[in-house]
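Notes on consecutive records. When two proteins share a document, each keeps its own sequence and its own token line. Never mix them. Below: protein one.
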Amino acid sequence: MNSPYDGDRGRGAGGDPNGPVPPTPPLPADQDPYVQDAYRNDPHRTQDPTAQDPVTEALYDRAAHPPPPPGQAPGQPTQPLYQQPAAGRHAPDPQLWASPPPPEPQGPSRNLPYGDAAATTQFVGVDDLITQAAQERPEPDAFAHLYRDQQHYEPQHPPAAPGPEGVPPQSAPEPEPAPVAAAGKPSGGRASGLLKSSAVMAAGTMVSRLTGFVRSALIVAALGGAVLGDSWQVAYQLPTMIFILTIGGGLNSVFVPQLVRAMKEDDDGGEAYANRLLTLVIVVLGVLTVLAVVAAPLLVKLVSFDISRDPAANEVAVAFTRYCVPTIFFMGLHVVMGQILNARGRFGAMMWTPVLNNIVMIATFGLFIWVYGTAKTSHIGVTTIPDEGIRLLGIGTLLGLVVQALAMIPYLRDADFKLRLRFDWRGHGLGKAAKLAKWTVLFVLANQAGVLVVTQLSTWAGNTADQQGHPGTGFISYASAQLIWNMPQAIITVSVMAALLPRLARSAHDGDAGAVRDDMSQGLRTSAVAIVPISFGFLSLGIPLCTLVYGSSGAGVPMGYMLMAFGVGLIPFSVQYVVLRAFYAYEDTRTPFYNTVIVAAVNAAASALCFLVLPARWAVVGMAASYGLAYIIGVGVAWQRLSKRMDGDLDTAHVVRTYARLAGASIPATIISGAAVYGIMQSLGSGVLGSLAALVVGAAALLAVFYVAARKMRIEELNALVGMVRSKLGR
């Protein structure tokens, strides 16, 4: 049994070519190295003289006579191998059937097997195990490093400067220790801070959108939907177009990442770089503002040739433009200061300060309506609006942007950022950052080119329709309807992708195409649950919604038709947004540029066709439908390119099936809702009461029919959404 195994010695895979090896003859017991010392050191030999007797051997208690340790003579007292601990004061009473359990020991009470260290081993009972299992331990976030730019910025203090000779250097005061969280309220750490920042940003965006919606309603009520409203809309949109075309796009996409990098790497926390960037923006926008004020007549002609050839309309539009274009300067200041605060973990100011602008403008147009009345009752136009009214609206618009920009300064001081003008721009990376903005600037140019064509054609068609007795069919109606149409995209799709974008970027960086596909598919299907029924809902609810909001201007019904024309185009518009995020995750900005060129070209061509073919009162409605058509083609091209990049693995069947089922559930809901809206408005009219009743009943019918149809189709995304809502409500 103890002899080595020699059966395969010297054999290969095909056997030993020399033949079998003869077995080794057994050695005598006294010469065998494996057995000759087996019984030499018998520890029981001296204590067990009768060990050869099997009966006595069986009755001999070896546990009472343990062998001596090595090096100790037999008969000397030995230390027992195992020692039972003494009974403590909590030992169970054998006379009680159920004695109370003793408390858990504070440390190990016995030797541990398998080499475990007693100092690092913890003994727990069942109660502790249950308690620990019930406690939720957040797992470490695998994508936490993607949010490092969003953490609270702590300014870096420079090293202590040496004092005069004989005087010790003055060191910076040590920061006060952070307050300890109260017992029972553990700090959420990085995850809770990120959620808090996201909640603040989401709340600010929501309030900003709602106040902007009220502002737009008051503008249309004060100026109407005819030539005066179009003149104001042209002047109000010009600063935004100029800012985006010049430095706005590059500022957000290139300069801001450079700003964040400087704040991390520079010894002063990036304060000098930020001041250089702020100074550069002030100089460029200051020069640009002066040139825009001087060139206001040319800018009006560039945006709307039809308004510029009408002397009265051109005079009003130029006056509005000269009040509005200085907002370029304050718009740029707000963006730069807001991004400086974002890099230091202060997110609220960037989202909440636009609310101040909306409040100032709401007060301005409310005052205008209080003095002159609404456009429906005052009949104010480009020939009858007083100069005082133009100054009131112009100064109020400029004041809103001034308040929005200056409100950022207290937040900067609270973040320990000191504003200083710095003109040492050379050799600090600003030129390199400007070169990186090439594709972004081209992207913006392509997008604004399409907007410029639509602005020219819509103002022309609106003026023609107004002369024919059909007001409210021009550019201001187009922009107001588009504002309502874009709200679900800004609130739903953007929020969903904001949560998925870090994962998408991480997966693309790691080359995990499967994870990119899954994240994009999840973003598309999750947002579609709300986007698809809302887009169909615009078909049935567009008219009562616009007559309720814009009815005081007399242009509610034409705007309702435009909102209906925009309606279903929200679906490809939302899909396009998600697909382009995948290209950005792969750090590909060239493909989105080419895709934007295609969308802008299709939109411009289709809008021109509508202008030439359709009557003037329906031309802008056709342009609204062209917007969705352009994004349908753009999504097809972008999807094909992304599929080619990812070897055809985009979960296309799953996504298309989800959208088809949601559309199938939305169609009967839209028909029933539209019938209810039509019946109510025929009975009650298009006033406030009729519009409100039609909107409430139509929306309820739309949601009820869609929910029942979707549950019958077993749309898993809707079921998951309903389950999440029920869990939040505790049902």
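Protein two starts on the next line and is unrelated to protein one.
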Amino acid sequence: MRPHVNDAHRRHLGLIALLSVLLALIAVPAGPLARAHAAACGTANVAQGKTATASSTENAGTAASNAVDGNAGTRWSSAFSDPQWLQVDLGSSQTLCEVVLTWEAAYASAYQIQISPNGTDWTTVASTTTGAGGTETRAISGTGRYVRMNGTARHTQYGYSLWEFAVHTTDGGTGPQIPGGGDLGPNVLVFDPSTPNIQAKLDQIFQQQESAQFGTGRYALLFKPGTYNNINANIGFYTSIAGLGLSPDDTNFNGDVTVDAGWFNGNATQNFWRSAENLALNPVNGTDRWAVAQAAPFRRMHVRGGLNLAPNGYGWASGGYIADSKIDGTVGPYSQQQWYTRDSSVGGWTNGVWNMVFSGVQGAPAQSFPNPPYTTLDTTPVSREKPFLYLDGSDYKVFVPAKRTNARGTTWGASAPQGSSIPLSQFYVVKPGATAATINAALAQGLNLLFTPGIYHVDQTINVNRANTVVLGLGLATIIPDNGVTAMKVADVDGVKLAGFLIDAGPVNSPVLLQVGPQGAAADHAANPTTVQDVFIRIGGAGPGKATTSMEVNSDDTIIDHTWIWRADHGAGVGWDTNAADYGLRVNGDDVLATGLFVEHFKKYDVQWSGQNGRTIFYQNEIAYDAPNQASIQNGATKGWAAYKVDDSVTTHEAWGVGSYCNFTTDPTIRMDHGFEVPVKAGVKMHDVLVVSLGGMGQYDHVINSTGSATSGTSTVPSNVVSFP
């Protein structure tokens, strides 16, 4: 890290900058020409909060994003060499008229301002070899999406350093207006109690989607408030069912919402990608059946009876997730290997197989891991429920629940839920055929996003740069990045809500699929964190897909609330090198909390945690099935890459109810040194940890580091560590 230029030198530079400004004012009278430019050039800084990149950074605290964050106290600085550049992606093509560079003491004496339609082909629109530092305003003319300061000569021996890089447009950045609101598209079916043939329509959708594990159909089934009789809504792949009331009790089914496993011979371990939300059920026989695996949330539901989480006949099951729900009767997981329930109320819980985790659940069983395998936290430290669509009279709105600390029980009991409503007119309703350019233009305009059910190919990154933006998907809306781009990036801003969509890797490798905060992000978001909820990531299965890292979280205080990050072990485009992916989740931000974390089958670390004070409540993992041999997963001197790695530099980290399973189908002789790898420090604590060999297909030598007994044989019995260290 270089020192700041000394104060005397800074004052000297400041005097030079002031003299330059005075000379400029003398040299350019405020005549008609100057007034015409001021009138034509909008005042909005369209670069603020956008995605910035640079040729280099001096250190982690001087990231490119600092130059476009609107904060005059943060800066980008480069390595100490020429040339260096900083560029910003405006998100859409703009008619440009001016840039304003606010230099730190280490400024450019020679630089160019360049614009580009694609980030590759650049046109120089302004240049100087006599840069004076301070605040420099450069008039430019042209149309482009990307704007770059290309420094060719430094004034000091240090790098290039900008407090802020502002870009102005002829229209103030508004561009063509994209309308908000409108209809919900062809794949959203809205019912009211008078709708004819409701059951027939539900059956039709289910027959299409029941076994369409990698199909292209996407559906949202929405029910207006009221009472519906004799309903049995079977829910297949890529189907979401939800009520449109502000409370689940506003929409009542005298009937069931059902997931079973008849399509897979009574095996529920592949009942992925579906959801039920915001409904009240009076089950016909007293107990509703929700036999699911990963990526099948049960949120904001009221079951006036019991809930069975196993398939008919009690075949295998591998789920699952419940939040903000009330089950009046008993929950029976039966064959479910693991389950996480958060901020809910249950009338009872009958059993556990390997790993049942509860936080903030009224009626949860007492802490008793490993016999029975219950991990119970009285409250959830921080939570904010998922946004949801509802009807206010005849108007659609999205309700955004408030953040809670040390929560217990549902948000919607006797009193109205706490939060805020956003009218649909403030959302760009994204429908099949929408382009990434239009999506980004809508975001730049200040709209939120509501993805209707469908598959969306994007040829450029979706850039979420505005604080408090809501990106909500219906019916497992699916985003596929083309040509190796990152599907979505979130700026280091407060309160973004990402919820309810699937990112499916494309055949060209993406460096990362979802990035929350740029690398080097350092802003404090404790009061208003970003949330990532029911956002699922898939590499392969529907076809070849590749990504180096699936999800990267750099912003501090982010809440990851239920995700399944999956490198496919079956389907199309599957193979050790065909759907290659090294890392599932990488966390670099501090104070990040994960509640309900499912990550599976990556070639290196499934989870790698580098930020301080991270916390995980419930983790489910399977090591990659298809490793061809022991050498293919060798990590230096360590046998195997840990399922959950906390970096050696971390001094504070805590996790509860975490498990890893191995099933090396290609070479069952493979051994893992351990499932979990953490630094041995007083502030790093692991609770209720297990590893399991599935039928003896590979083994673990330890649970955490060199602690915990080895798995052995074919009995599929966990090895447990109750507390570490």
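For the record: Helices lie at 7-27, 32-40, 198-209, 436-445.
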